[in-house]
Amino acid sequence: MNRPGGGPEEPGAGLPGTHAAFTALLEDSAEELYESAPCGYLSTLLDGTIAKINATLLGWLGLSRGEVVGRMRFSDLLTVGGKLYHETHFAPLLRIQGHLNGIALDLRTATGSRLPVLVTSTLKRSQDGEPLLIRTTVFDATERRAYEQELLRARRAAEEARRAAEEARRQAEADRERLCQTLAVLQHSLLPETLPDIPGVRTACHYHTASTMQLGGDFYDLFELDDRRTAFFLGDVCGKGPQAAALTSLTRYTLRTALLHDVDPVANLGTLNTVLLDRYTGDDPRYCTAAVGVMERVGDTLEVRLASGGHPPALVIRVDGRVETLDTRGGMLVGALPAARFVPARTTLRPGDTLLLYTDGLTEARVGPHRELYGDEALVSFAAGLAPTGPHRLVEALKDLLRGFGDGLDDDTALLAIGLPARTDTGPGIAT
Amino acid sequence: MSIHRRNNIRVTGRASGRTVVLVHGFGCDQNMWRLVEPALAEDNRVVLFDYVGAGGSDLSAWQEERYSSLDGYARDVVEVCEELDLRDAVVVGHSVSAMTGVLARALAPERIGSLVMVCPSPRYIDEDGYRGGFTAEDIEELLESLESNYLGWSATMAPVIMGNPDRPELGEELTNSFCATDPDIARVFARTTFLSDSREDLGGVTAPTLILECEQDAIAPPEVGAYVHAAIPGSRLVTLAATGHCPQLSAPEATAAAIRSFVSALGR
């Protein structure tokens, strides 16, 4: 661009001799073009014997024309693997199709090194279609091959990673499945297998598990003390997981044992309080809420004595549709403080009446677009809407209610219902 | 799934003639036989098929376990013979399929009466004084060559064939034969072929057997042809004036003539 005068001009114009040089270039002989082309040229007889080869290819191979022409076959230039490929793919396909394009092969040079190349061959035929010779061009593919090797390596690495991830996922799935099974068995062990059959009394229960991956902390039990009296309890320990399960286990067996010695519900909660305080000392306090009751058959009624420690109030759904809340306000958490106070309550169940104990998973479920607490009042109206009902129907209705909460229900929920069949009932198990 | 469809069976030639089953080897499909097929069809019934995994076969029927041993390929041969209810057929196997034919004959002697082994090799790798012509490293190199070539294989072939107006009969089906070999399938076939050792099976061959070899064959050198000939009692060895590993392509007339003369000598 140092031309005097500057300004745009035809390239070469005004420079004497340039045109002549350009013409001379164009007149480069075909022979020169063949010999010094930037690719290798090769002509072979049908049996592969090399009849003609250009200087470029000889240079790449490090061989002289005399060593090659008439003495070597094309496949002699290849690595052994390449020879096999040539015999099994290249030669047959060339013979059938008459043309091959861009086949990756490695040439073996005189120094023993490998030269990656891309090979294109055509079969020259006579006028009547007989194959005469094979023309081949050879391109240096060192860079390209390195790049392809990189791609292949990356592909293999990706496949390996995918396999490893898939294996890990399968393993995790299996672990999860095993854990779920273990948790389900463990959770099951914290609850009675079935409620015992108490003559003349209807009972029903339900346990809703919020997560199959997490042990819940709700519990209940019901068992006969003697011919007339039956004990029951229902509660909720603090926390979740294995610690909660251990606490649940201790709570359940403490209450069961204590109730066999003393039928006073308040005293039982006191015993549990002592046991929990004794077991969980220092900086790991563990506590629970619980309602404990003893019922006694008196004539055609059930006399129920109940005590609560920090637990939601039990409901009584009367045969006439009234719903009573058994007031146990003031009862304190069990296992939190040495001198905890527990509040007693009494009620009499007549035929058609149903007592309901539940944990706060039910009333603390979130409902509606604003995710409000379901709440005690809603539960009372729901129960009132079911009257007259019985334990079985009540629990079934509540199960539907829980299902309806969907993901608004994120806590475990335990339900225990006890009732006397209405007078019109003709036998056990019918519409109660 | 019918075997017909699975193995892409094609039957041509004289229905009344003796049945000749042409079995392709590693690296290609039944198209390998297209230059000898017309001559063979003149007086024989010719059966062509593709191994499962090759050419126009049903790739979904391919199972790595089955096709990781030559027995799997031999079962293909036998199942094709059963499908067509062949009796006393001549099985012509190229390259590795020469050995597959031996195994198939042992499985179904009533269906396969005689064998033609085209450029056979019972063992490609040198071992304890036996010369197969290759080392285990050579075979690994071949597998590398397969890897380097499948990337552009199918994409490259289609325009090549379409730009081939002087041989229109080679039409588009070719794009789906050689070219469409699934690289995973090709790798398994390559390993099975080149790592196999069938030398023990040769001594048990009792069928009339013709061995065809080429003067110059980089895969099955003359020592190997002589070894096979010596190992199979009563076999005939014919050395064709041809080079390469595929005389059915490089010397189709001579190959067909040798097979025809062998078949006609079998009588009826």
From TrEMBL, chain A:
PROSITE patterns: PAC, PAS, PPM_2. Keywords: Coiled coil, Hydrolase, Kinase, Transferase. Residues 144-182 form a coiled coil. The keyword Coiled coil applies. Residues 26-78 form the PAS domain. It comes from the Bacteria. Residues 101-153 form the PAC domain. GO terms for molecular function: kinase activity; phosphatase activity. Residues 203-420 form the PPM-type phosphatase domain. This is Histidine kinase. It comes from Streptomyces pilosus.
Automatic annotation (TrEMBL), chain B:
InterPro entries: AB_hydrolase_1, AB_hydrolase_fold. It comes from the Bacteria. Transmembrane segments: none annotated. Residues 20-258 form the AB hydrolase-1 domain. One of its GO terms (molecular function) is hydrolase activity. Keywords: Hydrolase. It holds the Pfam family Abhydrolase_6. Coiled coil: none annotated. The keyword ATP-binding does not apply. Belongs to the AB hydrolase superfamily. PANTHER family: ESTERASE-RELATED. This is Hydrolase. It comes from Streptomyces pilosus.
